[in-house]
Amino acid sequence: MQTVFNPRAQYHRIRLFCVVFLVGLFSGSNAFGQCDDVAAPLASAPSPANTSISIQADTTLTWTSGECTTSSQLYFGTDPALGMDAFQGEQASPWSPPEALVPLTTYYWQIVSFNVDGPDTNGPVWSFTTTGPTGACCFSVDGTVLCVEVSEADCISLPSSEYVGDLTICIDVVCEPPNGACCIDGGCIELILETCDLAGGTFYGDATSCVENICDNDPVGSCCINEVCSIATEVNCVVSGGTFNGPLTECEDGLCTFTGACCLDEFCTVLIEEDCVLTGGTFQGDNTNCEIPCPAEPIGACCITETCVEVADFLCTEYNGQYQGEGESCSEELCEALLHIGVCCVDEVCIVVAELNCPAFGGEYQGDGTSCASNPCAPPVATGACCIGDTCSISTQANCEDNSGTYQSDDSTCGADTCSAALGSCCTFGQCVEPISFDDCSLVAGVYKGDGNNCDGDPCASAEVA
Fold first, then answer.
1. Prior bond of 178 cis (ω within 30°)
2. For residue 168, which of 153, 145, 152, 144 has the smallest C-alpha distance?
3. To bridge 74 with a disulfide, which of 79, 91, 349, 448 should be the other Cys (CB 3.0-4.6 Å)?
4. What's the chain's average pLDDT?
5. CA dihedral 70, 72, 73, 76 (to 10 degrees)
């Protein structure tokens, strides 16, 4: 599709060319002209994904530009032809529409990629469809009234539900418990479950009515035995090991799907797993109940750069922070200390952590900005005093002995008298002389055989005369 360009967009291109040209000269952004005469690559990785549905009205568009793209122009609208009324100008990813999107509407968008050193490229036309509007939904489970914000279609699927209206929110809504038929001493009155129980009546279920003769007989309703549904009285249902769903209830599709405890924050109710997830709850498993209270989400300190907040672990992750642990409180220095990151040596193992956390591993912090590249946690090679004649130097044992020296011990040091008594044998002109120091051996052009050596065995018999 060939897109018609905004005339002012051409002006921006010319101005951008000057800027990018200068940037290229001084920063190497187009080093060696690798983008010269190269078409700008197609934009890719659109989000929302192409042809996706049920997208929220406050969505943000993102895409990936190619290496030789110097700028991008965006077209966005509800007409797949994407004319000038859809032109949004030069934009960068991510981009948020200036107004909330219309529910249940298909939107089309296109990225035109520019390369100031080469041809421009019209990208593919992508599309997505927004979800329907949501609103407050009041529903009741076993006389307990809850409110969730879902679409009207999802609300209808919840038990004893009432959709308050599009764009309503639960914080502004008071959900009243529904009345139902209540039989007290053979008479029927429509009450809420709590009032019916207090009066010692039999509650026939939310939203049931006092129809004629409803209280004359033991009421029947749907009974779930495993996943099989039948109509029975409550007594017969329970005796058969079933679950009675309430007077006058019918065997509807999916009614006998296993239920379980559903935790909504710290509140617990029994729902099927699908309804639990729909309401934003955490399903505790089939056939579980609410005898065990729902756990409160534990909180702890969360460091977001230098800022500390006390939130749950999952919220800290959403904030791209570092969770400091359950029950940990914020302090002035807690998050500031996390900015000091470097090598922590745990014995001979090297890890990179915050200085604050190194002691927890039993390690020794090596300093800010250090890395494991140079193997800083390797054990150091032992050194000590080395005597070659009466000369003392600090060396490893191997280097000392390779130079005919006498190694004193690990970590020993050179003092004034460390090597003063060091004597050995010396081969000079084929003769062995002992005891003699290294320096005196050198004066007679000899070869010093080492501290403590002697002339036993005629060690100089094969020595060449200098």
1. no
2. 152
3. 91
4. 80
5. 180
Identify the pLDDT of residue 28. 35
Taking only the tens place, the pLDDT of each residue in 325-370 is 888 888 877 777 777 788 999 988 898 887 877 888 889 999 888 8
pLDDT tens-place string over residues 239-255: 777 888 777 778 887 77
CA-CA distance, 137 to 156, in Å (whole number)?
A: 9
Kindly state the DSSP code that residue 330 receives in the 8-state scheme: P
Nearest alpha-carbon partner for 403 in 418, 388, 423: 388
pLDDT digits (tens, 9 = 90+) for 196-234: 889 888 888 777 888 877 787 777 788 887 678 888 888
Give, as one character, the DSSP assignment of residue 95. Answer: B
- Distance separating alpha carbons of residues 76 and 38, to the nearest angstrom: 26
**Averaged over 58-63, what is the pLDDT?**
92
For residue 43, give both structure tokens. 């934009």
Higher per-residue confidence, 84 vs 465: 84
Contact 133, 56 (CB under 8 A): no
Question: Could you give the CA distance from residue 158 to residue 139 in angstroms, rounded to a whole number?
Answer: 6
Please tell me the predicted confidence (pLDDT) of residue 387: 84
Q: List beta partners, residue 202.
A: 183
322-326 and 299-304: which strand pairing? antiparallel
pTM, rounded to two decimals: 0.34
DSSP string computed for 145-158 = EEEEEEEHHHHHTS
How far apart are alpha carbons 222 and 224 in whole angstroms?
7
Domains contained in the chain, CATH given: 7-130 (2.60.40.10), 135-227 (no CATH), 392-451 (no CATH)
Side chain identity at residue 333, one-letter code? E
Taking a C-beta distance cutoff of 8 angstroms, is the pair 182, 196 a contact? yes
Q: With CA atoms as reference, report the closest residue to 65 among 49, 88, 44, 37.
A: 44
User: What CA–CA distance (Å, rounded) separates 186 from 182?
Assistant: 10
Residues making up the chain, counted from first to last? 466
Q: Hey, what are 262's tokens?
A: 């559903």
**CA 15 → CA 149, 287, 375, distances in Å?**
48, 68, 51
Going by pLDDT thresholds of 50, 70 and 90, the confidence category of residue 322 is confident
Name the token pair of 382: 């032992």
Mean pLDDT of 433-456: 86
First to last CA, the chain: 95
